[in-house]
């Protein structure tokens, strides 16, 4: 029997926490703790070792970004973190993604989208719609007046892996990658896994950020 998916909900608004708990619990997901500040969120993660954290960006004492950084740089296997925001182009979301968060959700997310998102990141995938990925990365990458050349770390990738990474940066799903490259989805997943391993990345979100920041893909 598969173990229940364990989640911590961190948000300073009681109604948001209650609503998310109700939605997740109804789908068989175990909300092991709630937090109202970033400090509480870090403590809850240390005590309960959840699979996923739903983390509001703006909270008292310690904001969600600082809390996410502490959690993701801690000892042991870190949970997947989904940032919660009111605005889909919040600069703090971009900072969170570069720090290792697995994606973000708007607070007006539907129940179906919330459940799907939590299950998606738990499986190791990333949570960013292709259009939002491009808008988010392009908005903040364009502030670099001198776009960097391809980073030497990318030299570890094969030509096919570079091609896959470039397409990932344009928001293509595994199914779309398979169709574009005339490969099976299983082969695409293998390529993606090797890219993440070679570059030391947690998931596809970080791969997208790296593709833009290294100049492999231009905003």
TrEMBL record:
Gene Ontology terms: biological process: phosphorelay signal transduction system; regulation of DNA-templated transcription
InterPro entries: CheY-like_superfamily, NreC/VraR/RcsB-like_REC, Sig_transdc_resp-reg_receiver, Tscrpt_reg_LuxR_C, WalR-like
Location of the HTH luxR-type domain: 150-215
An annotated Gene Ontology molecular function: DNA binding
Keywords on record: DNA-binding, Phosphoprotein, Transcription, Transcription regulation
Claim: Transit peptide is one of the keywords in the record: no
Response regulatory domain location: 6-122
Sequence positions bearing 4-aspartylphosphate: 56
A Pfam entry, by short name: Response_reg
Protein name: DNA-binding NarL/FixJ family response regulator
Species in which this protein is naturally found: Micromonospora parathelypteridis
Native organism taxonomy: Bacteria, Bacillati, Actinomycetota, Actinomycetes, Micromonosporales
